[in-house]
């Protein structure tokens, strides 16, 4: 829809409102204005990896798993399905007069913060640690969610703007101090891409301060950068109760009216919370103007107009509850789960051969656990397939399945009346000793790593204290290894853990409702794993700077100066691939990829770039292009990867993006060019020199 016409229509609508009515629309739970035909509307909805907290909906892999696909086309398809389900639910609920929380069309997703530190509990909501990968996945999600029709199919929201990645316990009072270089090089690029490229409808501010300014009332972030520099014309929403933090925790204001005025003055249009209830009092105190209130209301009405809420001819109005939770949606969730899993280690035990295995031990607290599939901000699936379910269905009568949980996820006993800890350990050891192979399902869930607990959250979890499995699971792993049976470790978690044990290790992330089916097909060799890590797995926290330090030195693959446990971009395959005939120009990279193995498989072609002799460049090559290709055994394909002009720039110490020179070295292959990736994969990426003078 034409932006100018939308705003003119919104201005006319707001002009008909009394000032009290206009101010009331700045709350997330906006009341209806019956005389103007404006129904009540609750702006708060979530769609991180499926419609969340609103009954039955398809649960796709958690965002960190979606990132591990390295597949922008599939992510856009997933986001389109999420928008379809959101519309179907909105239409159905509205028909019954139900306009409660989580039932609108303004989806507070995606989370494009940078997962800079593995301790951060909410990191699994993101697309990982790399600004380029996060930008590409975020743009794809927004485009898929908002659609290509005359109206927005649903409205996306880029959050949390900005410099927000823990610590969770301090987020309401924390000041994220960041250099100009790190701000522009690491923390802002994804937000800029979503605004400039994807036309994201909304931006949500963060809880913390950024260099002293509260993010939801920051003149630097919200006015100078977002509105003036990037030309953002959507609306800004606060994180929930973040504006109250101005006076309660940050102490940058003294009263709620001062906090409301600071947020509104700097462009925060919508308050998730209750501070804007005092907006008219702030007006009486001379802290805000009528014009500011009406401008914010106009921006909000513009979003509702773009969604077709006041029209009777929106192309999405016919979607019904029958368009939710379909077989096709489940099939897509399965394909995504399959594409997201990352094989970290394999001594040859995988894939398992059912013809040679008589008994399979499935052990671990995550083996038959739905939370191990979900992550946080999830919906409720009608067709969960746990890891145990998937293995049982795949095996059928071809082998015996023995199951034992072995331990709690974090509790030292599973029965409260047990006299001693590890009350399920003996059973698990016996299962291991009587099995030909053990599938050991360990890891975390949203009760362990997640958002700091508040009134809007289901669990009081937060950040991790280390990179180890919880103590009961460590005891379980050690005991099962001592049993001597070959072990395939399945790691369900949304962040880096130090797990090295097992003959094979498969990182499943939180793979969504079809995770068990995808796992089984990978275990038994019906499909090759093709996911890549969107984060660095470290050996321990002693290798990293303090959690509170937002400087990038020695963080993430671009700045880490040691060998990782498992590097960013790493993931093994059951097949093998060769790369040849690589070439590069200013516009693109070309490379011939051949599947030299014995089975059909997917592979992520990755391109990393390093400018020659540029002091402002990160110390390690940076990802600048990627694509996922699927090749049959023996098939080869010439792959073309477009290069953005930004690939040839760096950010200097003053925060300016400048040209990085004329000579570049590009690395093309299935991983980073770092020593550890080469050691793990046995394959070194091709090197291409590019001289832009030629």
Helix fraction, binned, reads: 25-40%
Strand residue content: 15-25%
Shape: globular
How would you write the strand order of the largest sheet?
9-14-13-12-10-11
Number of domain modules: 3
Number of DSSP helices? 20
Query: Averaging pLDDT over every residue, what do you get?
Result: 97
Largest sheet: 6 strands, mixed
| CATH domain class name of the largest domain | Alpha Beta
Regions with little confidence, pLDDT below 50 for 5+ residues? none
What structural class is derived from the secondary structure elements? alpha/beta
CATH fold naming of the largest domain: TIM Barrel
Number of strands: 23
Euclidean distance between termini CA atoms: 44 Å
Please tell me how large the radius of gyration is. 25 Å
The CATH architecture of the largest domain can be named as: Alpha-Beta Barrel
Q: What do we call the CATH homologous superfamily of the largest domain?
A: Glycoside hydrolase, family 3, N-terminal domain
């Amino acid at each position: 829809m034409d932006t100018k016409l939308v705003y003119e229509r919104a201005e006319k609508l707001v002009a008909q409102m009394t000032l009290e009515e206009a101010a009331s629309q700045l709350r997330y739970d906006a009341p209806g204005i019956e005389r103007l035909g404006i129904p009540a509307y609750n702006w708060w909805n979530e769609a991180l990896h499926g419609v969340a907290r609103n009954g039955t909906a398809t649960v796709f892999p958690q965002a960190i798993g979606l990132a591990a696909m390295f597949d922008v086309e599939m992510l856009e398809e997933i986001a389109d399905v999420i928008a379809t389900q959101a519309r179907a639910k909105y239409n159905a609920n509205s028909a019954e007069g139900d306009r409660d929380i989580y039932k609108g069309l303004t989806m507070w997703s995606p989370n494009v913060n940078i997962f800079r530190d593995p301790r951060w509990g909410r990191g699994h909501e993101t697309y990982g640690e790399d600004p380029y990968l996060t930008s590409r996945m975020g743009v794809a999600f927004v485009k898929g969610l908002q659609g290509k029709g005359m109206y927005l199919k649903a409205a996306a929201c880029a959050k949390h703007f900005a410099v927000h990645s823990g610590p969770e316990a301090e987020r309401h009072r924390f000041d994220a101090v960041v250099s100009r270089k790190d701000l522009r090089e690491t923390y802002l690029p994804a937000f800029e891409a979503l605004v400039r490229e994807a036309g994201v409808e909304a931006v949500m501010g963060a809880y913390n301060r950024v260099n002293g300014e509260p993010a939801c009332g920051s003149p630097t972030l919200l006015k100078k950068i977002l509105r003036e520099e990037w030309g953002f014309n959507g609306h800004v929403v606060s994180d929930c109760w973040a504006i109250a933090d101005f006076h309660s925790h940050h102490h940058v204001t003294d009263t709620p009216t001062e906090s409301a005025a600071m947020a509104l003055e700097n462009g925060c249009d919508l308050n998730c919370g209750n501070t804007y209830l005092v907006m008219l009092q702030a007006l009486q105190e001379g802290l805000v103007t009528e014009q500011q209130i009406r401008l914010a209301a106009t921006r909000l009405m513009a979003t509702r107009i773009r969604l077709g809420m006041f029209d009777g001819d929106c192309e999405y109005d016919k979607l019904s509850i029958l368009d939710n939770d379909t077989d096709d949606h489940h099939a897509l969730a399965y394909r995504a789960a399959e594409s997201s899993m990352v094989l970290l280690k394999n001594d040859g035990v995988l894939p398992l051969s059912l013809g040679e295995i008589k008994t399979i031990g499935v052990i671990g607290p995550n083996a038959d656990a739905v939370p191990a599939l979900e992550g946080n901000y999830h919906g409720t699936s009608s067709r969960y397939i746990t890891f145990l379910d998937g293995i049982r269905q795949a095996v059928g009568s071809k082998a015996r399945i023995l199951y034992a949980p072995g331990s709690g996820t974090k509790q030292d006993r599973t029965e409260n009346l047990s006299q001693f800890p590890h009350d399920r350990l003996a059973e698990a050891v016996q299962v291991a000793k009587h099995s030909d192979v053990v599938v050991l399902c360990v890891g975390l869930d949203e009760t362990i790593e997640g958002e700091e607990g508040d009134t809007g959250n289901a669990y009081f979890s937060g950040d991790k204290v280390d990179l180890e499995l919880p103590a009961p699971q460590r005891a379980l792993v050690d005991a099962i290894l001592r049993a001597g049976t070959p072990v395939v470790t399945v790691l369900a978690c949304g962040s880096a853990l130090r797990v090295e044990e097992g003959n094979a290790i498969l990182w499943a992330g939180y793979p969504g409702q079809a995770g068990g089916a995808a796992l089984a097909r990978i275990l038994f060799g019906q499909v090759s794993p093709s996911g890549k890590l969107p984060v660095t797995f470290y050996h321990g926290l002693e290798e990293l700077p303090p959690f509170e330090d937002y400087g990038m030195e020695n963080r993430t693959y671009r700045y880490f100066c040691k060998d990782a446990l498992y590097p960013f971009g790493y993931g093994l395959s059951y097949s093998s691939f060769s790369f040849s005939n690589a070439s590069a120009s200013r516009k693109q990279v070309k490379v011939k990829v051949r599947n030299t193995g014995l089975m059909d498989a997917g592979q992520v072609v990755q391109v990393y770039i390093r400018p020659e002799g540029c002091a402002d460049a990160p110390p390690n090559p940076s990802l600048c292009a990627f694509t996922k290709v699927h090749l049959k055994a023996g098939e080869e394909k010439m792959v073309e990867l477009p290069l953005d002009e930004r690939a040839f720039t760096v950010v200097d110490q003053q925060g300016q993006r400048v040209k990085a020179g004329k000579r570049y070295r590009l690395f093309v292959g299935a991983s980073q060019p770092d020593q550890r990736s080469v050691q793990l994969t046995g394959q070194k990426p091709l090197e291409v020199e590019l001289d832009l003078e030629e």
